[in-house]
Design a protein that fits this description.
The chain is α/β, with parallel strands linked by helices. It has 10 helices and 16 strands. Helix content is about 30%, strand content about 25%. Bound molecules: nicotinamide-adenine-dinucleotide (NAD). Nicotinamide-adenine-dinucleotide binds next to α1.
């Protein structure tokens, strides 16, 4: 039997839109779900933005203040897609109000913030899903299975990269992302958080790390009007960039594997160059987000000069079958969010966690805090969960 689940979205920038579209599409791809999301309310504090979203996507109610959603009895689940500094306050309030939450990474500014949201979710007995969407790529699911099967031997070393140019333009506006109080650690929360999640998903817990960070564009112009995403600003009053453009980090995993994680938001010539290389004692597996459906695999018994072949993921890998009937039909970023919505709704349906949870967010945030501490102290640090 199908029943309706009232959902709301807080923050209608890029992620708010993607979550909304995922709620609309999820029953098309996963008809086995017995919960059908109903778009009840949207909140955004920029005047007119929530109303526009309601007009376009069909939310019944548009509000400026997210607190109205916390007390709305029609709302059972909330997407939290507001800037990082609001994650804790909104996440805790929604959980305490008995709402299930689908919250964007990195879940706050610090590990304390992530812990607070995680604790509130546990205490309230609601479900919490976190936006570590790269896990949802069927090729990443296949890589995890391959590694766990022992096919590439024991994991020896890993390279994880998240290089992007979204902040490379010197006229990129000084939005919340560049302020420590509202954006946290800059590229650490923006990109390295995804890298830590991928590292843990594929290889296991990080035992210690040593990081170096840098700011390459130290000043930007303040925006002269409301922003969403990565807008440009000229003529605004210049202000300092308070958080990191770049992080480079050595990793030691609990398994004994070693790794390197590099993330940058100002890499000219790099557009979403996200991916990993996992090297085992007998083989290796390579993934690049820009060729999301391909996994390059080296396996066998020759060790040296061992060839690499390409696997095009298909219906047997991850949730691919919900999208296409045969291998090598390209999926896109938004599809990863549809899978995330599926995990969220399925978790609500049967009370079991599917996909990344707030516990994963706490682990990721602990690693990010350790990176900041390590860069400051110039030494090895163990993440404290
Ligand atoms: N999973 C991913 O791949 C991914 C990608 C991008 C962003 N994110 C995360 O999603 C979150 C939002 O990022 P974005 O790129 O959509 O940002 P954005 O700037 O495009 O959108 C944020 C929205 O929140 C609104 N907002 C600000 N204060 C608010 C308040 N008090 N109440 C209600 N709305 C408020 C803004 O007006 C804006 O519309 C961030 O935490 C970010 O880390 C995740």
């Amino acid at each position: 039997m199908v029943s309706r689940l009232g959902v709301a979205v807080v923050g209608f920038g890029w992620m708010g839109r993607v979550h909304t579209q995922a709620y609309v599409r999820v029953p098309h791809h996963f008809p086995q779900l017995s919960l059908r999301p109903e778009l009840v309310a949207v909140a955004d504090d920029v005047p007119g933005r929530a109303e526009e979203a309601a007009g376009r996507y069909g939310f019944a109610t548009a509000v400026r203040d997210w607190r109205e959603i916390a007390v709305d009895p029609r709302v059972h689940a909330v997407s939290i897609a507001a800037p990082n500094f609001l994650h804790r306050e909104i996440g805790v309030a929604m959980a305490e109000a008995g709402k299930h939450i689908w919250i964007e990474k990195p879940v706050g500014l610090t590990v304390e913030d992530a812990r607070a949201v995680s604790g509130a979710v546990t205490k309230a007995g609601v479900r919490g899903t976190v936006g570590f969407n790269y896990r949802n790529a069927p090729a990443v699911a296949a890589a995890r299975e391959l590694i766990a099967s022992g096919d590439i031997g024991t994991v020896a070393h890993v390279r994880i990269r998240l290089l992007s140019d979204y902040a490379a333009h010197p006229e990129g506006a000084l939005t919340w992302r560049y302020e420590r109080e509202r954006g946290g650690g800059g590229v650490l929360g923006d990109l390295a958080s995804h890298g830590v999640d991928l590292a843990r998903f594929l290889v296991g817990e990080i035992e210690s790390l040593a990081a170096d960070t840098a700011v390459f564009i130290p000043e930007r112009a303040r925006p002269t009007s409301a922003t969403a995403g990565h807008t440009r600003a000229t003529g605004g009053v210049p202000g300092p960039v308070e958080n990191e453009d770049y992080v480079n980090c050595l990793l030691r995993f609990a398994s004994g594997a070693r790794g390197v994680l590099e993330a940058c938001r100002v890499s000219v010539g790099e557009q979403n160059n996200y991916g990993f290389e996992v090297h085992g004692t007998r083989g290796a597996v390579f993934w690049d987000f820009r060729r999301m459906g391909e996994l390059r695999i080296s396996r066998g018994t020759t060790y040296q000069d061992q060839p690499v072949s390409t696997l095009h993921v298909g219906p047997g890998h991850g949730e691919y079958a919900a999208f296409q009937p045969g291998a090598a039909n390209a999926m896109g970023y938004d599809d990863l969010k549809v899978i995330e919505a599926y995990h969220f709704l399925r978790s609500i349906e049967d009370g079991t966690a599917y996909g990344p949870t707030l516990d994963d967010a706490v682990h990721s945030a602990a690693a990010l805090d350790a990176m900041s501490g390590s860069a400051e102290r110039r030494g090895w640090v163990s993440p404290v969960v």
